[in-house]
Structure prediction request, 399 residues.
Amino acid sequence: MTGLAFGVLAAWAGTAKVSGYVLPSAAVDTDDGFGAGARAALAWQQEGYAPYKFALQASTYFATSGYMNHRFRFDRTGIGVQKRWRITLHVAYRRWLYDRYYGIGNLTLRTPGAAQATERSDPAYLSERYRLDQPGGQVTIRYELEQGSPWEVFLSQGLRYSLVQLYDDSLLEAQQPYGVQGGGVLQVGVGVLHDTRDPEIAPKRGHFYELSLRAAPAIDAEAGGFGGGLASARWYASPHPKLTIAHRTMVEHLLGRVPFYEMVHWGGSEPIAGFGGGNTLRGVPFGRWRGPGKAVAQTELRWTFLEHGLLGDPFGWELAPWADVGSAFGAGSDAQPLPEGVELFPVHPGFGGALRVVYDKTFVGRIDSGVGLDPVLQSDGTIDQRWNWGFYVFADHPF
Prediction:
């Protein structure tokens, strides 16, 4: 993000207001190297619809590591005579030339050679890497049980195809976990929501609770054959007009044959990718730990230190120190055992800070930076807890 103010468009049409932006973006982090792209968003705000009548978001991103992420989102609220229906469409294509695989389980260890390698032609570097291409999308339909009620139910359907390519002599090639054949998967989700966020996009108060189930039948290669449930709670409180305490806890457990790459995806009403990376366990590499079960707890203190107008609309700047913790579980016999006499704390931390901008209570841009611990097994059998640094540039708050 080079500045949310760049390219902002605002126009009035009767009782409707159209606002948005188009801007370039750039980022660098230890997961994907340097990258650049562009992002655009538009929201049609109209009386009687919250937080807008409909919104469009599109982004494209390319990194020097070969990572790319292209996304499109359409959100339409207030459908029907009583305005109780909402439909959201997510479409994405992601490609990692060097996605990470460290094994399955909550206490996997790295070797010094792999941890220190930076050249992509180095066999030690490739030993923890594989290529993954994933096009996909999800449609979610939400329904208010009563007009204006915080209680909602939802139904979602997602399609995703995973193409996995192994590097010679890699850990993934050696272990061959379920999922290396890739394939297409159809996922269906149902759930109940209780949403009192105010406002929805950049909440100052309220909560968002979710209980949901998802299932993916085995219909192609090694992409399906699993199901499970998710519980998520977000809450927000503002002890001062310029301070907001935000917290999210999520727990999900999948049963059946779970592809190794699906272990870092979350179900629910909104598709969330990552156990590690820029959204759920910041400071920790994406996919550093994985299992059929996963849990995270995240807390932020959002301080609005500057507010001013921009083209007649409010524009705020925030600083947000944050702390995340997470753990993977349920791997059973698939989990890599620790060497005899070695013990590790089962909860993994990450902490750091963020710069956020909030435009017209509808658009959020953020730069998050933080560190997490990465355990490396030394040749003498001791554990070296190394610091990993992450730098993330995204639209929207992480929660």
